[in-house]
Design goal:
This protein is mainly α. Helices cover 81% and strands 0% of the residues. It contains six helices and no strands. The protein is globular. The protein starts with a helix and ends with a helix.
Length: 136
């Protein structure tokens, strides 16, 4: 029992590190520190944002199956994107803060849904690869 608890804590820590690493990379793509091509600004940030959501959900619910984690992450990411169709004053006020813009975005784009799907799919691939490495 003690071994399982230590393993769970280790896995939880790994997911938190992956969350922070992914968040950091995403913030770099949104900054002016590096002059990235336009496609990076358009798509990579959304890809990394969804990947970060996936890692965060993995750290919060490590006992869930990978499919469950991916579905929750997709549902959350898609919900945020579809919420951009609503332009209420109160929500737009939040969106005009730095954190609000990063979390909620401004306008609905189908390409964002594709980037979210690819980001979460990449997370599923990495998680599957990492877990298979640990089992060997």
């Amino acid at each position: 029992m003690e071994f399982k608890t230590a393993q769970k804590v280790k896995l939880h820590g790994l997911y938190l590190v992956l969350t922070i690493l992914t968040m950091s990379l995403g913030l770099v793509t949104r900054s002016s520190m590096v002059d990235f091509p336009q496609w990076v600004h358009l798509y990579l940030g959304d890809f990394l944002w969804a990947l970060m959501v996936f890692w965060l959900i993995c750290s919060l619910k490590p006992k869930f199956t990978t499919v469950q984690l991916a579905m929750i992450a997709l549902l959350f990411a898609y919900s945020i994107e579809f919420s951009q169709l609503y332009q209420g004053d109160w929500l737009n006020t939040i969106r005009h803060t730095k954190l609000g813009a990063l979390v909620f975005g401004f306008g609905f784009k189908v390409s964002d849904l594709a980037a979210y799907t690819l980001g979460i799919g990449f997370g599923v691939f990495i998680k599957h690869t990492l877990l298979n490495q640990k089992k060997k």
